[in-house]
Amino acid sequence: MQRGSALLNQQLSAAVTGLRFGEIIVIADAGLPVPAGVATLDLALTNGIPSVDAVVRVLKEELVIEEVIIAAEMRKVNPTVSATVDEVFTGTRVRELPHDDIEELLPTARLIVQTGETTPYGNVLLVGGLDFFALGMADGD
């Protein structure tokens, strides 16, 4: 187990550790169609468990995130996940795209993490960033 990490799942930990700038990890609801050939981690246990909220909160602490992508439709029909995104990703760019455009991004995902979320448009795409300061590539002065 990685020291200092909250992640117990080996596949998820490996994806987080290996995520590069611009690569995508999708936190998906239970109904998101997964394209053939895309690595998938199915965490779903039962209806709502785990929730997108729970997974997003853990990954927020583990990743450097450049931006978050959500479906524009989420704002109207899924106030629960929408509120989670607003609360958890304060200060991070949140881009809204039509759901069809999000489905076009899925084949490029490094990993799709399926949750037990059963609310509509409950998908959150996390785009990897880079912390130049932590890597010693930039001076904080």
TrEMBL record:
A Pfam family this chain is assigned to: RbsD_FucU
InterPro entries, per database record: D-ribose_pyranase, RbsD-like_sf, RbsD_FucU
One Gene Ontology term, aspect cellular component: cytosol
EC number of this enzyme: 5.4.99.62
Catalyzed reactions per annotation: beta-D-ribopyranose = beta-D-ribofuranose
Gene Ontology terms, MF aspect: D-ribose pyranase activity; intramolecular lyase activity; monosaccharide binding
Cited NCBIfam families: PRK11797.1
Protein name: D-ribose pyranase
Source organism of this protein record: Agromyces badenianii
